[in-house]
Amino acid sequence: MDAAACGGVAGAWIRLRCHRLRQGIHVFRSSCCLLLLVVGLAMALTPLKLARAEDSSKALVLGRVSDDPKAQYEPTKALLDYVVARMGNVGIREGRILMARDALQMASYLRRGRVDWVAETAGGAMLLQRRAGAEPFLISDRNGVRRYHTVYFARRDGDVKSIDDLRGHRIAFQNRTSTSAYFIPSMEILDRGMPMEILGSPFDPPVSNSVGYVFARTERNIATWVHKGLVDVGAVSNLDWTNPTHVPEFFKSDFVVLRESAEVPRGVEVVRKDLDPVVRARLREVLLAMKDDPAAVGLLDRFHLSMRFYDLDERDRRDLKRLRKGIATIGVEIE
C-alpha cells in the first residue's frame, strides 16, 4: 500500500473516532440533563409531600358507619365543628367526616390511618377493636340513654317458651353489626351450647339440633315476622321494644317476653391506636366538658340530639370485655 492510500485509511479512521467521540459526548450530556431533571423534580416534590403530610396532621377525621349518610352528615358535622374549634392548641385546624357503609369498611379506614375517631355502638366498637386495633376511650349516651339490653320475644301461642327451646326453630335479627339485635343474642345462644345456622329466608327450616337465624333489616320487620309466624322469636333492644314505631302496640298483646339480657354501654367512642397522644388527650377533655357547656347543649338540641360523654368505669370495661370475647366466638363459630 502506497503512502497516499495509507494516509486515506488513517484519515478515515480518525474521522470515525471523532464521530464516535462526539456521539459519546452527546449521550453523556443527555444523561446529565436527564439526571439533573430527575433530581430537580425530586427536590420540587419533596416540599409538596411534606406540605401534604403537614396538612393531614392538622385535620381531625371523624368516622361514622351509616346506611343513610345524608341524614347523619349535618349533626355529625355540627359535633365535629364544635370539637375542632377547641383543639387549635394541639395543632388541629380543620375537621373532616368519613362515612362508611359498614364496620368492615371503617376497620379498613382505621388500619390505613384515614380516620382518627369513630362514634360507634358497643358491638361496633368491639368489632373495630378486633379488626383494626381501635381503642375505646370514652362512653357516650344517646338521647339520654347510657346503657341498654336485648329483649327476646315470641308469640304467646307459639311453641317457644324460653330461649332454651330454640333448637329447631328460627330467630330474626336486624343485621350482622347490630349489638342488641345480633351480637348479644348470638352470644347468649352459643353460650347455651346451641349451634346456629344462617337461613336463606324465613321460610327455610333449620336442622333439628340448631337455631336458624335470618336478618330482617329493620326492627319493624322483626316484629312483623314474629307476629305472622314466619319466625319463632325476635330480638330487639329494649329501646325498640318500647317504641311503637318499631314494635306496634297492637302486636304486643300477642307477644310474650322470653328474656332480657344483661346491659351494655349504648355508645362507645374509639380512636385509632396510633393517634397522637396529645391530640387524643385534648379530644377527651373537649368531649367530657361538653355536658357542662351551654353552647354544646344548645348545638345538640338543635339537631335533636342528647349526647354526653363519660370515662369508662370498671363495669363498662367488664361489659366490653365480655362483648369482645363473644364477638370473637361468633366470628369463629358462625361467620
Note down, in words, how this protein is organized:
By secondary structure, the chain is an alpha/beta fold. It has two domains: 58-146 and 265-315, Periplasmic binding protein-like II (D-Maltodextrin-Binding Protein, domain 2), CATH 3.40.190.10; 150-261, Periplasmic binding protein-like II (D-Maltodextrin-Binding Protein, domain 2). The protein is 49% helix and 19% strand. The chain has eleven helices and 14 strands. It has helices at 3-57, 69-84, 103-111, 122-132, 179-191, 219-227, 238-241, 249-252, 277-289, 294-302, 314-333; strands at residues 59-65, 94-100, 117-121, 135-140, 147-148, 150-155, 170-173, 196-198, 211-215, 233-237, 255-260, 264-265, 267-271, 309-310. Strands 2-1-3-13-4-14 form a six-stranded mixed sheet, with helices on both faces. Helix 2 links the parallel strand 1 (59-65) and strand 2. Helix 5 packs across helix 11. The longest helix is centred in the first third of the chain and has 55 residues, at 3-57. The protein is elongated and about 60 Å long.
